[in-house]
Amino acid sequence: MCELFAMSSRVPATLGFSLERLARHGGAEGPHRDGWGLAFYEGADCLLLREPRPASESPLMQFMERQGLRTKLALCHIRLATFGGLALRNTQPFARELGGRMHVFAHNGDMPSLADQDLRFPGRFTPIGDSDSERAFCGLMTSLASVWDDEPGQVPGLATRLAVIADYAQELRALGSANFIYSDSDALFVHADRRTQPDGGLRAPGVYLLQRYCWRTAPELHDAGVNLTSIRQDVALVASVPLTDELWEPLGEGDLIALRDGLCFAADGRQVEPEQAAGRRPLPLS
To answer: Which of 84, 138, 237, 257 lies 20 to 30 angstroms, CA to CA, from 282?
Structure first.
């Protein structure tokens, strides 16, 4: 199965060691040799990089590890192909425009029947490739289109978006394992399901969450493009498997959360307080 990784932060940060560890899983220390992709957000738009080759052997991935690009929101995927040939069109994350913003999606799992199903409104969001994951994304975008179309130029309420995503995720779980990360540039949405475990069993957890916080000083903030003397930095990381020795909290089957500025929101749109947040601890940020 593929692996997912994403970051949400209050102040722009680099992916650092986590990206390096993920890349090793893409062929060197793991079987995920069939492609990789990174999406770095800047406001409503994003830089999307994808290659249908092992991440551990990619000069472009190595460049991105060294470059240390700063962002408040990033999504990553390394692929172990099950549906769809080894081609750029089947390499995640996938991206589409809706409401004047770039929406990005990556999936981990298998939904065999979805590959044979017609999309409900294929004219607006049509797959380019032939993977089950891209079909799932096009279906999600179709479900969300109405709430974005209701108020052009406005971002729908977080609780409204979460409700639509929760309903659609329930449909996907009936078709197979449906771990996914999705962002509309305003928030990062994380849905956890089952995943093939090291013993071969298909069960939760499919996604892990880690939250960090610390205080940033003026020089660090200046490097990140922030003109303040000090600020609290909050970072939330999600991954298919823990990438460090820290306290990553497993999410349960069917759990759905939203991350914005490094803070966590429950499925009803309510912010999860720091002392309640899974795995949250004051640690230095890599």
So the answer is: 257
